């Protein structure tokens, strides 16, 4: 029997690899002679770098960069191991350098927060000779349309008096000219793929400021100011660079970073789970599998909309392989994924417990649940 174990991480508890290892440990108690392929997964959000590094036996690179407010912070990105004999690939999570979690709640202000640190991570990878970068959007503290990132890569964004615009979303309203002549020379030789799971445009009622600004600390007045600034920035980009992707799906992602990577890096936006599936080669593992096991911290009605278990299920279905989901907990409408074809879903929490207790005993609960799932399968066999 060949069993493929391809879960996402259990947030704040276990990495995707640790989840896969626990499931394998449980199943081996019932099927000790089965072949197990562990393929850590992610959907482009938090944990993507670690999952993809683990899946390809790559390495984590630590770098000191600027946080959203300009202070120094230790961030990281991943260099993937050999994947189908292709050149090295770097995987970067925007949140590692420009994440909301890096800004104290009472200091969150998208008028001033910058994506400069994300640009520093990209620069570090380019300086290593990397020619393929996967950038995960999401969890950002910024609303600067990627201008901080662009400045870190040598692109000059200038006021009418020739000074650099101020950092943050408010500074976009000062922009008069764009000088790309000093941009990092390796940008043009690097292929940027961007994990993006939202379709918001840059501006307007569904834009970056209106939809994502409040969770980053923006008041109603700030949202209006930020939206006007983004609109002005888009106008100058059209005027200076003769291109406009402001209405493109995903342009408003991560405070307009979607617009920034399309404009300055010619990045291609794709659903995160698709990028991960392709990069780790999930299909080759599933082709001859007898069973696929996936999971995430919480399976609920949203899981079918681009989350890891849904992506894994679709690959398994292509090869007619039954798929089981194991989750930390099941939320409202969790059966939606069963309606999509998953064989069964199981929560691992055995009884009433505090969150701290649940997180502390995740490995044990995961192993115990996996043993029982395996026993059910053996009973059918």
UniProtKB/TrEMBL annotation:
<dbReference type="GO" id="GO:0008887">
    <property type="term" value="F:glycerate kinase activity"/>
</dbReference>
<comment type="similarity">
    <text>Belongs to the glycerate kinase type-1 family.</text>
</comment>
<dbReference type="InterPro" id="IPR018193">
    <property type="entry name" value="Glyc_kinase_flavodox-like_fold"/>
</dbReference>
<dbReference type="Pfam" id="PF02595">
    <property type="entry name" value="Gly_kinase"/>
</dbReference>
<protein>
    <submittedName>
        <fullName>Glycerate kinase</fullName>
    </submittedName>
</protein>
<dbReference type="InterPro" id="IPR018197">
    <property type="entry name" value="Glycerate_kinase_RE-like"/>
</dbReference>
<dbReference type="InterPro" id="IPR004381">
    <property type="entry name" value="Glycerate_kinase"/>
</dbReference>
<keyword id="KW-0418">Kinase</keyword>
<keyword id="KW-0808">Transferase</keyword>
<dbReference type="GO" id="GO:0031388">
    <property type="term" value="P:organic acid phosphorylation"/>
</dbReference>
<dbReference type="InterPro" id="IPR036129">
    <property type="entry name" value="Glycerate_kinase_sf"/>
</dbReference>
């Amino acid at each position: 029997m060949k069993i493929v174990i391809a879960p996402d991480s259990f947030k704040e508890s276990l990495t995707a690899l640790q989840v896969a290892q626990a499931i394998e440990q449980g199943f081996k108690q019932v099927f000790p002679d089965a072949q197990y392929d562990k393929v850590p997964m992610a959907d482009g959000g938090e944990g993507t770098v670690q999952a993809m590094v683990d899946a390809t036996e790559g390495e984590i690179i630590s770098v000191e960069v600027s946080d959203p407010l300009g202070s120094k912070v230790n961030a990281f990105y991943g260099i993937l191991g050999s994947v189908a004999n292709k050149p090295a690939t770097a995987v970067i999570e925007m949140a590692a350098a420009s994440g909301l979690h890096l800004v104290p709640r009472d200091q969150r202000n998208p008028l001033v927060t910058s994506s400069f640190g994300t640009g520093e991570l990209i620069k570090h990878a380019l300086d290593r000779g990397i020619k393929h970068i996967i950038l995960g959007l999401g969890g950002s503290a910024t609303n600067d349309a990627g201008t901080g990132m662009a400045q870190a890569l040598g692109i000059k964004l200038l006021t009418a008096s020739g000074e650099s615009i101020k950092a943050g979303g408010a500074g976009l309203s000062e922009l008069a000219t764009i000088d790309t002549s000093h941009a990092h020379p390796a940008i043009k030789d690097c292929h940027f793929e961007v994990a993006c799971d939202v379709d918001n445009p840059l501006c307007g009622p569904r834009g970056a400021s209106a939809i994502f600004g409040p969770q980053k600390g923006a008041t109603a007045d700030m949202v209006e100011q930020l939206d006007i600034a983004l609109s002005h920035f888009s106008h100058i980009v059209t005027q200076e660079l003769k291109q406009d992707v402001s209405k493109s799906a995903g342009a408003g992602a991560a405070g307009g970073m979607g617009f920034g990577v399309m404009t300055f890096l010619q990045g291609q936006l794709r659903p995160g789970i698709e990028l991960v599936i392709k990069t780790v080669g999930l299909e080759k593992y599933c082709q001859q599998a007898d069973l696929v096991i996936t999971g995430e911290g919480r399976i609920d009605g949203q899981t079918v909309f681009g989350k890891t278990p849904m992506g894994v299920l679709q690959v398994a279905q292509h090869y007619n392989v039954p798929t089981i989901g194991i989750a930390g907990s099941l939320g409202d409408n969790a059966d939606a994924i069963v309606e999509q074809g998953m064989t069964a879903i199981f929560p691992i929490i055995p009884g009433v417990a505090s969150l701290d207790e649940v997180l502390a005993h995740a490995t044990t609960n995961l192993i115990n649940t996996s043993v029982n799932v395996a026993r059910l399968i053996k009973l059918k066999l």
